[in-house]
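Retro notes (design track)

What went well: tokenization of the new backbones is finally stable.
What didn't: we kept losing track of which sequence belonged to which structure.
Fix going forward: every design gets posted as structure first, then sequence, in one message. First example under the new rule, 343 residues:
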């Protein structure tokens, strides 16, 4: 007759251990899937957030630049301008622009996930295995345009009585600003320092550092500019002859005090002047297209005689993006602004 085998207690324990190990492996698989979902999907969301932030920054800067150039803009115009650059500035080339709000010299742009076929959400790779819903990611940026409060450049200041750019215009009429013979657009009190035109004290060769914070900059008297401006004027000349444009940001003053080397100009802001020609001296780079027979010139704009001193051109609107100028400090808006992301 068959004999019954006795199963030892040790064997039964091993069978139970094998069953427990299976449960443990199943639980660990769920933990691993969850960890993968957390690591990979969170990384995907952060990457999407970075792309949307790039898109929001680009859209806000573009809208702010266009709004300032136009003089004014509506919400719908700002939204359209933001959409032109938001998508191309995402790494994947797609993003939705939810809104563009304009107020007090600022534009706030909010972007969100466009998703596959414009679905509006981001499908997560691993978390979907746990039946987690898709995610919509958003980012926002605010750009502001403000007049610069400081700068460094060509050492010449211009009277505010010469400034003729209206708020709605992008370019002003062409004009001649002269010191000799007879100063132009000087205002009832002269607003020019006797013994000089608008030449400024320099911090380095042919460069003056100015700011509207203290509103004062010293005068460098005399009929001629600093001799070391030859290289800069030569660069202007080369650019214009090649068909390019020379736009220079000049400090603008509304009053002047004292005389000669002891004189000071009172600065109110900065304006951009598109230069057509000049006569800062005789011969070489110190005079260029200052005669009536020169291209685009007329007898009213010319200053050809030996002691004539003038600059010829027109004021224009101008925007710089993320420049190095100082923070706003009450400068007058003269059509030249700095556009920066403020938050």
């Amino acid at each position: 007759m068959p004999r019954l085998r006795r199963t030892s207690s040790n064997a039964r324990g091993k069978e139970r251990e094998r069953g427990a190990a299976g449960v443990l492996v199943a639980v660990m698989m769920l933990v691993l899937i969850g960890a993968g979902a957390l690591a990979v999907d969170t990384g995907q969301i952060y990457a999407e957030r970075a792309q949307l932030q790039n898109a929001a920054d680009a859209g806000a800067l573009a809208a702010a630049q266009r709004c300032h150039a136009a003089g004014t803009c509506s919400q719908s115009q700002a939204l359209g301008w933001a959409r032109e650059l938001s998508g191309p500035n995402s790494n994947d080339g797609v993003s939705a622009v939810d809104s563009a709000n304009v107020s007090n010299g600022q534009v706030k742009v909010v972007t969100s996930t466009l998703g596959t076929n414009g679905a509006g959400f981001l499908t997560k790779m691993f978390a979907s295995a746990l039946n987690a819903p898709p995610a919509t990611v958003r980012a926002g940026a605010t750009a502001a345009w403000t007049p610069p409060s400081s700068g460094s450049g060509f050492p010449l200041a211009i009277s505010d009585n010469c400034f003729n750019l209206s708020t709605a215009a992008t370019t002003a009429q062409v004009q001649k600003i002269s010191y000799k013979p007879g100063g132009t657009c000087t205002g009832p009190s002269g607003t020019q320092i006797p013994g000089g035109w608008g030449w400024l004290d320099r911090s380095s060769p042919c460069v003056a550092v100015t700011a509207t914070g203290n509103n004062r900059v010293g005068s460098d008297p005399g009929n001629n500019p600093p001799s070391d401006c030859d290289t800069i004027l030569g660069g202007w000349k080369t650019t214009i002859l090649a068909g390019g444009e020379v736009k220079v940001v000049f400090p603008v003053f509304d009053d002047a005090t004292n005389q000669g080397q002891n004189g000071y100009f009172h600065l109110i802001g900065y304006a951009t002047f598109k230069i057509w020609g000049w006569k800062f001296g005789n011969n070489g780079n110190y005079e260029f297209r200052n005669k009536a027979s020169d291209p685009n010139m007329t007898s009213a704009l010319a200053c050809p005689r030996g002691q004539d001193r003038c600059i010829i051109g027109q004021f224009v609107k101008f925007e710089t993006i993320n420049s190095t100028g100082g923070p706003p400090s009450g400068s007058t808006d003269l059509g030249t602004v700095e556009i920066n992301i403020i938050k």
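Added context from the reviewer: Residues 247 and 274 are 4 Å apart (CA to CA).
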